């Protein structure tokens, strides 16, 4: 991944968009972690906000830095969601400009719920995430019982599914919601919207990592500043 300095710049720029009284979606991953820490500092300085975490990790970090927490049932809406991504389409001429692949952290089911519930969803990224076309594997969260059947359906879509193994646990990664993850390689994805629709229609798929037409902006941390893309 990219430099931590670039990630920090992106995260802190996004945190600066958080206004008093906001309900903020708190994304998952190392880039958003910088935003959460910056929000924690703003809360220490008197900012009054409530955060909705998108994973066990973002909840733990928010508690650690003192961001007051709430949930979707307890609020009338989400003003701003801040989250990272694994890939961001940065070709202005592409129909998929601003489309994302997310799910590297296996948190994409709750991320997509919170990110799309927000009035405004901004991505924080370093330059290594930018691409002309989406081409990474698409993480697909599946009901545990469904992983073999869904894998067959992915192959029928010319994808190559791999059940995501855990590192420090025997067996597969299990998400915060108790699901498994198939990382599905499709090569270059020229029409992510069409693939997203197909993936969503497969029984047993809980959520996939294609976020198309969802992000409102991306803050890209560079070595000497922040670039902003608006979609
Ligand atoms: O899981 C996700 O979608 C996360 O946002 C993640 O993949 C981005 O993580 P990073 O900011 O640590 O690269």
UniProtKB/TrEMBL annotation:
Substrate binds at residues 28-31, 83-86, 102-105, 129. It is an enzyme of class 5 (isomerase). It catalyses: aldehydo-D-ribose 5-phosphate = D-ribulose 5-phosphate. CDD domains: RPI_A. SUPFAM superfamilies: D-ribose-5-phosphate isomerase (RpiA), lid domain, NagB/RpiA/CoA transferase-like. The keyword Lipoprotein does not apply. One of its GO terms (molecular function) is ribose-5-phosphate isomerase activity. Belongs to the ribose 5-phosphate isomerase family. This is Ribose-5-phosphate isomerase A. The lineage of its organism: Archaea, Methanobacteriati, Methanobacteriota, Stenosarchaea group, Halobacteria.
